[in-house]
Amino acid sequence: MKYLFIVISVGLVAASALTFFSFSEKQNDRPVLRWMTGVNPVREKQAELFEQWMIDNGYPAVELRIEGPKKTQKNIVQGVSGVAGDIFDCYYGEINLFQSIGLLEDVTDAAEEMGFGLSETYAGVWSDLAIDGRQYGFPRCVDTFVCWANVEAFEKVGLSAPPAVWTLEEFERIGAQYVDLSNRPGEHQTVYFSTQWGLFATTTLLRSMGVDIYNETMTGSYLDKPEARELYATVYRWVNDLNLIPTAAESKALSSQSSRTDKGVIYLFSQGNFGLIFAGRYATLYFREIGPKKLSISEYPHKAYRNAISFARSSAVYKGSKHKDLAVYFLKFMASDVYNKEIAENPDGLPPSPKFAYGEAFSHPEEYPNEWGLHDQIRDVVNEIGISFSYSPYLQMSTLIRKERNAMDSFLADRISVEEALSELALSIETDMVRFTSESEKLKVKYAKQVQDQKEIERLRREGKMVPLYLITNPFYRRYYVDKGWSLPEG
Fold first, then answer.
1. What pLDDT is recorded for position 260?
2. Which of 105, 113, 162, 416 is the most exposed, having the fewest neighbouring CB atoms within 10 Å of its CB?
3. Rg (alpha carbons) of the chain, rounded to whole number
4. How many CB atoms are closer than 10 A to CB 377?
5. Residues 54-99: pLDDT tens digits?
6. What is the DSSP pairing of strand 274-279 with strand 146-150?
7. Which domain holds residue 132?
8. 225 located within any domain
């Protein structure tokens, strides 16, 4: 019965979408491209810019129609049904997900010919765009997570803002001072050093210890390593012993007391309830609205290896599109001067082409002198230490986030030991990988080969020999092995 319902639902979606799209295109002399993204004034302006850019450059006139809200499941259902939009917005591993089920057009050749190849954007996000050497998208913008500090809140208690580069020990020492000075003895705590930690923050700190959540070929998990146990124990101390970070219950209680529930954590940050918040350049759009006005930026704290997770919010062409030849122009548009200048001035991340992340409009926005220098810092983090997240083709990102969050919450709530939490988490991840790959013969063959590659990497490391870079697919280890001298740079 469940499968019958799914089949009927997909059929109804396909029929209604096909009817709507067919009717709407008949009302317009220009071909209609449908962009599956979030609906907001920024996207509407970008759509207008694209339509005019096509005309100005002598390309076919088109109408770019925005259709949202952006939902992964919606794109999958419509894509499998053959009626999805022409252009997908892809975040956080969705290019890997959509490509694995055959929804995306390979644009490698078009990218080289039309000038939106990988060399046109930041090396730190290439893994977000290409799979097995083939390109499937181009960034709408690029960003990274940094620690934003409310300088006014620090100065209020007589402290300087955290340094731009700092260690785990400095994070703990400064955090303890901030919490101690910001809360009155004997009263309920209302001020914390930082917001809750998410998967990207945990991964960044773990990488600073030389370990990633996945192994070198992303066929298994390294979350049962001693380094992971050390990190999770440290986070436990920050949450439960030093009260630097709120528990889930404390965070929820704070949010319920906020008078600006629409902006949630941003508002609490502006009020000084959090000294730090973790976000990218896009956060300046919110800060401009509700503050704080005096800000500073720090990298994530590290133990030994400085790094940051850089990511691309990308667009990709739907393989079943009737207008694939026109949709590809949208990717070319995102590498254009017109589009990049728009992103440089409107801080929805970094402009996709690095050369536009310089100059007065980017570095010194005229109406916001309090931001001068901050945009440059974010650009430098991406350029110098930015590495893509490890999106394994054998596990959906949503599954990883859910499993890791559940393990962290159980551990922090004392329902399970750190050893049990991480060993069970690693085993659960690897079990799901095997189950996921068994559903596709092509993926099953690829997985089996990379398991053998992993064994070869481990043998070479035991023997102290150089590891060929082509064996490594995990973007973190591709960078880390070269920096450690365990592999030679590509080429």
1. 53
2. 113
3. 23
4. 15
5. 999 999 999 999 998 888 888 889 888 888 999 999 998 899 889 9
6. antiparallel
7. 2-141+312-368
8. no
